[in-house]
Structure formats: C-alpha cells, structure tokens
Amino acid sequence: MSISAYAGEFTISPIPLEMSMNYCSHKCAVCFANLNQPGRTLDVKATINQIKNCNKGKGLTSYLLREKYPILLSNRVDPFAKTNYRQTLSFIELFNANENKIVFQTRGGDGIDEALSLLDYKTHWYVSISQLNDDLRKKLEPGAPTIQSRFELIEKLLSKGHSVSVGINPLVEEWLPVADFQEMVDRLLDMGVKGYWLELIHLNAKQVGNMSEKEKLAVGSSLIKEAAKRTPNYSYIDWAREYIQDSGGEVFSINQPNASSFFDDYHKKFKTIKTNQDFINHCFKKYPNGGEIKWHEYYEFMKEPFYEQEFSEADGFVYRIARNVYKKLENTPFKTLKGVLEAYWDNIDIPKSLFNNDLFSVLSYGSDKKPGTYRCKEDSKIIYWFNAEPSDKLRHFIE
User: Fold this and answer.
1) pLDDT above 70 for 33
2) CATH of 3-269, one of 3.40.50.150, 3.20.20.70, 3.90.800.10, 3.90.1300.10
3) Which of 8, 62, 153, 342 has the fewest CB atoms lying closer than 10 Å?
4) Which residues contact 182 (CB under 8 A, 6 or more apart)?
5) Where does residue 34 fall: left (phi above 0), alpha (psi -120 to 50 degrees), or beta otherwise?
6) Whether this model's pTM surpasses 0.90
C-alpha cells in the first residue's frame, strides 16, 4: 500500500489523495479494510519515492502531490494504531517538506502528541466513535483506545485550534441506542463539535468470510444478516440525522437528501475538489422549488483544471466502484476524470450516480417522447429533475 488518488470516494470526499499503511492493530470487527486485505503492508520505499519524485511523475497521484493537494491518513487504516504510528510520524515530516497538508481519520492511539508537535498548521481531525459503552467497545474494537480517551483527544485537538468532526460510522442502534446517541451527541456539541458523518453498517460475503469466529460472535448473526442487505432500514439514521440537525449540528452521509455545510471546513483549510454534497447545496440555493438539471451545469460546477487531462489511473474510478456496470460499457478504458463524471452522470446503476440520491429523478425528455428516452437533445445525456422537497424514499422517474 502507498499513496493513491482517492478513487473510491471521488465525488464524496473533497480530499483527493489517501495514504493507506499496514494492517490496523485496532482490529475493529467490521473494518472493511482489514477484512478485505488482512495482510497488507506499506511499501515504505515506494511511498518515499512517490513523494520525492512527484515532480517527474506523469500519473494522477504525482500530479496531485506536486500541486500540493492534501492527503487523507487514512480511509483504510488508523494512522495512530500501534502498527502504523511510527511510520505516520516519519511521513508527516516528508509531507511537510513537500508542502502537502494532512487530514487525519482516527480512533486515537499512539504518537498523537508527537504528530501535533510536527504540524505547523491547523488541520481537520475526523474521530470515530461508534458506541458509548466501553465494555462493548472492547468486544468490537479490542485494540482501539477507550471511548473516554477519544473524548479527551477531541478536547485536546479543539483546545489547540484544530477542527474536529466525529464519524458515527457505522451507526448501529444495538451499539448506540437512542439514549446513548443523545448523550454522546449532546456532550460533543457542548464541546464544540459541529460535524457528524453517519453511515449504516455494510458487509459483503467476502468480508463476512474473512471474519474470525470471535468477531462474528461480537457482531452477532442478526446484525451480520442486516449488514448484507442491499436495501437496509434507514429509519434510525434518518432519526439520528434529524436529531443532530435540530440540535444545531451538521450531518453528512452518502446520498443524503438535504443540504449540509459538513465539508465547509475542509474547503476553507485545504486545496480541495468539489463533491456531490457541494452540488446539492448549490441546487438548494438555485432551485428552491425544484428544477431541471443538465450535464453541462453539473460538470461546470464540479470540474477542476486537471479533469480533462489524461491519466491512466482514471479507469479505476469506474472499474473499482462499479465493476459489473463497467464491463457492460462500450467506451472503456476511461482516460479523463471528465469521462468518469460522465459515466457517473449517465449510468444510473453506478452508485455514484445522482439518481441514487432521493433529491434527483431522471426526467423523461426527448424530441420523440418515447418511453425510455431520458436524454437531452443537445448532448444525448440524461436530464435530472432536482426535487427540492423529496416526498419519499423511492427511486423514481418523472414522466
């Protein structure tokens, strides 16, 4: 593992680079990264070369590094786990020398004070807390720091001028029932934490197969079955989102049907890229009563100067997140990120398609008005309708 373009979260995260490292010793039972690649290690030499030689590299990762985009540490590992913190401290110094800022995702751990001493800027820390009960934490996250230590970490970070958001991810009612959720969020809001990332639990067959019997027992068979469903129950996450918003917080979850300033701090502090949430916010301002959305408007809002440059890595932005759809597409491989966005826009079976958000429906449009033609006459691309007030959770077409 090394530094790479953040392909899996393109249009979701405003941070375009991630660095994944060694297998995470926090050993969270439902960690997708540990379950997908339990034996992974950081290729230290290759990663150092990526940083030192980025001015010579022709790939997308080299481009983003030399253009001083920030790096996320990390979507697939805790940088302060015992298996990673020493390397984290070394790479902070290298990133400092290359003028790349770092955004952290962590449950806490070792080396954080040393990391803070190495940083000469105020960054953003995403701290994960999925339960308030520490006895439960010991079963589900046996190598991770205590819940109390995470509150103490948040307090320390805020006192030093860093910004903090909290990931309640996964949000599971059995792990964090209503009373615990309210107690935790109220405490965090009082501390000054405004942003919360909520997601449901999801496990595929491969991940379940890689779980130990101890992990399966800790999670429970009923929850494992629920986590495998393609259409999960959204009622608890919808309630949780509303509770946070009513309490003055900001929420983000993938494909959520509402505006949110969750990423505003990222955009203020770092050189970022636009997300679908940013476009949703734009639509709420421009179309308060709903409106027709064409490809051109979306792309003009989302595009960055490098989206029309050719990079070999661009193909993975579609292949990795929608392999079955990719195999059916005619014009592959993808050469540019503009082409990737076009694929996301025009293929409603791709999870990144706006169609998967309740705010957007495909508008039936065309010169012949035939059923099944949802295309703009000028560019033959799907037209969407922005539903400023979605009435339900159903994916639907407007005729």
Assistant:
1) yes
2) 3.20.20.70
3) 8
4) 243
5) alpha
6) yes
